[in-house]
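task queued by scheduler; priority normal; single chain, no ligands, no partner chains; default sampling; output format set to C-alpha cells
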Amino acid sequence: MRKKLPPYSKGIVSNNEPIWIFIGYHKEVFQLAKNTQSNSLCLALWEDPAVYSWPVKNRDVIVFNCSLESKDEWINRTVLSLLQDGAIYIVTYCIPNHHEIHYKRSLSSCQMKSKS
C-alpha cells in the first residue's frame, strides 16, 4: 500500500535546508506550515505519523511541538517514522516548555539515538 504525503509536501524544495514540521492542533499547525518558509510540513495532534511517507530522505528535520498535550510516546513514534523515511538528524523542540531533544540516524539502523 502506498502511503500519502503529509500536508504541504508540495512546498518541499530540493535543497540542503532543514525541513520544518509543526505538530499540534489541526488549525494552528496548518496555519503555521502555510505561513512559514518553504520546506514546512504539519501533523495534527494525535494523528498517526506512520500513515505518511515523509519527504525527508537525507535531510535534517526540525520538529516544533506546539502543544503540551502531546505525549513523549507519540513524539517518539513521529521521530521513528521520520528516521525510517530517511531523515539524518532531527531536533524536537517543545515550544510551550522550551524542551529540546536531538536525534541522529545510525548508519546501520534507524534506531533513535537521542541527547537532551
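post-processing summary
- DSSP finds two helices and six strands in the chain.
- Residues 9-115 form one domain.
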